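Sequence in, structure out.
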Amino acid sequence: MRVGVVGAGVAGLAAARALVQGGCEAVVFESEAHAGGRCRTVSIGPYTFDPGATSIVPRGRPVERAMTQELDATDLVKIALPVYTHDGRRVYKGAGVPATSRYCYTPGIQRFAELLADGTDVRLGAKVSSIEKADHQYTVLGERFDALVVATPTPTSEDLIATIGDQRKAYNTRYRSCLSVLLGYEKDFQAPYHAVVAEESAHPLHWLSIENLKVPGRAPEGCTALVVQMGPKYSKWNFDAPEPDVVADALVDVERVIGRGFESPKVQAIVRWPFSQPDSVSGFETLNPPGTRLVIAGDGLEGGRTEHAYDSGIKAAKLLLAP
């Protein structure tokens, strides 16, 4: 069976890998210049940032076996420091943040996507805006397939399958946007945590990751690399705001949370995520009845984390491989 996969995020890559292992030929089409979706790593000079997914928390899900036993684990790091909570003014050990194993990769979390993609035919820069169906086959960018996995953000998947008259809708899936601010400092910062999360979801600064405390080597000796993920309300209302304005707002909250002296970063950038995480999901089985040859996958059907996206991809492959 020849299967086309639209989207080289974790769900699409997991599906393609499982399909190849099951004896299928899989071709992955990705509109961006890199695979991984929100498992993305950005380097600015000597600073390294994970602006989307900052870690993977497997909680015993299938992704844990993949990372620790199936894929090359040479660069895999178990994050030593915990996550604390902040209330906008102080940082403390929050009871709502469970002490659970978190993983990342020394070069960056995008390494996970690269490992999933190894041995798979991934076409980067291949934007798919429509598909065709004829004689029980699907055509994507001129290539014919026996089955199709659409693993993009759910609203995008709905628009794509609608081009062949498929009206499946994930009515319960709702995504939030996110602005990630990347800051590199020629200043040291030490803490007993590698990240802090806001006590209240309405706070402008939702998540702050100290990248060099998460994984050593993300900044030069004596320097600091921060990823500041702004909250859903702030991100929604300021999504198209100029970069200097977003950075300025983030710096105010950074100073409030971790202290003074971080008002002048050496490097700065922002990454805009229009579909950051789903606040609610529809359920994989709800949208994908048994026997379908066009499978919708992605975190919008399972949950808003990397481990959920991986689950969705595996489910998509199993559905197509079922006798």
